[in-house]
Amino acid sequence: MLLLAGWGAGGVFAFSQSLPAPVPEETVYFPLKDIRLLDSPFLDLQQKGKEYLLWLNPDSLLHFYRIEAGLPPKAGAYAGWESQDVWGAGPLRGGFLGFYLSSASMMWQATGDKELLRRLKYVVKELARCQKAGKDGFILGIKDGRKLFSEVASGRIQTNNPTVNGAWAPVYLINKMMLGLSAAYTQCGSKEALSVLIRLADWFGFQVLDKLTDEQVQRLLVCEHGSINESFTDVYALTGEKRFLDWAGRLHDKAMWMPLSQGKDILFGWHANTQIPKFTGFQKYYLYTGDERFLTAAMNFWNIVVHNHTWVIGGNSVGEHFFPEEEFEKKMLLLSGPETCNSVNMLRLTESLFSLRPDAEKSAYYERVLFNHILSAYDPEKGMCCYFTPMRPGHYRIYASRDSSFWCCGHTGLESPAKLGKFIYSHDSDGVRVNLFIPSVLSWKDKGVELTQHCNLLETDEVEFRLKARREQRFVLRIRKPEWMKNPTFIINGKEEELVTDSSGYCLFDRVWAHDNKIVLKYSMKPYIERLKKSDKYVALLYGPYVLAGRFGKKNLPDSFWSTMNNTARRELDLKEIPSLAYVADAVADNLKVISRNPLRFSLPMNGTKEITIEPFYKIHFERYIIYWLTER
Predict the structure, then answer these.
(1) Strand 167-168 vs strand 399-400: parallel, antiparallel, or unpaired?
(2) How far apart are CA 436 and CA 276, in angstroms?
(3) Cβ(261)–Cβ(300) under 8 Å?
(4) pTM for this prediction
């Protein structure tokens, strides 16, 4: 495919073939347009996400961009982080628009909704107008952004996290706008978006980075900057222009990649979501340079976060910060909990690393996060995302309002419903992988193959695939074998198949496939426990891929669960009101009693209270819940 390479002499576009990554990926994701979700909670969430995208007014999101370009706004700005002072750092002006571009681009691919494409093109055209009016390539909603970056370029750099010279995360906003413009081009083919992207990247590169020493760049990177290294590598990949890769190489935070490339867990006390996106950038930089140090850093970081810093729902940290394993029991009692942003960005990192080294461990982590943290983070009425998911027993969640929050978790929360289909399938050089068990249809156009998946993991004990091929052909079908799936058997076209598992933890079927094939996966599941890290007192319950939680009533809850500026649920219960279990941890799962099969619900006898209804955590909203249970030692 021909891609825009950059500006030639006199501002004329030059075109060239994009440079392939020197490091080949082992498995590749299908375009979102090739995957359609079928009836399930994931399809419901996708629909809610699309409704919110269509509810938003693009002109309100463009408000500050037009002001900074010297143009009159066409609509008022939204409230919350978009326009109101937060923590004394001012608003994150215009911060939502980059995420809007990314989400609308992916949602158009995932659903084919033409109105989304129309709005996307409108926003890109308006951004191009703003950029033309500004005449220099700058395009942000930051108040007096040119003046701010002129100070930075002169060497006057005062940083902390989250500010640069008093402004809230300005490089982060550049990163998110660049990612959004890149998505508008790669997902929707908007050449105008690529033009705006290149001008913005050149402005930051020539007008800021080239004027700074490496030490000054590192000082700038003290402030949260997302995956700005990824964005510049993306522009290099889209254009083949080496200056963008050179700039990307200067945008690596040495405080992270150097110790993590050596396998050191130095994360204690660091702001979690500031760090996670950097490693997606390290991985992308490795793809186009082959520098193993950056892949090693990204792999080590993933392993350390997953194994040392993760709660049962797949989220990590408390109050936005990493902490030592020994503190899980203490941190569990706090009112915040894992931040939704962190999980969204850990999924992005998992996608990147899985494409290089696909295995069942990464898929299992992805499944845990998606089925339990992401799916549970959205309220079922308005589809708005929560900021924190408290782990404190007997606590609850609050969610963003549609027009008055615009928290960072609302930013990333806008994208998640659009890409729910991404990780379900991928393809290798010799076949296709089934990574997740989610009802869906895959159209593998290059092979003339359609793969349909029907399942309901909570109420049935089988997954059915229908594989239809335009012609008989040989390829490999790999289906992940999860640890929670007991005694799996495969019946293909009426015949039970011998189970062969490859080194990546996938069941492998290498055969000539007929025009129409029926593949039935039968299995059994039972409840099991997972202990709270470094605790001999608390356990969580799971059934298959789902974390179970207890409904604990509505005592002392707020009148509304949708908040504006306040992102933390404050009304705690005294822990003396939370029941404990009258048996040791290893006996907890055996004491669950099934009280309903469809929908699946359990009951669990407690000390000094009536039995509590237990069900998948993602189903419990507007009510208190218990995820971690206190047991007899």
Answers:
(1) unpaired
(2) 23
(3) yes
(4) 0.96
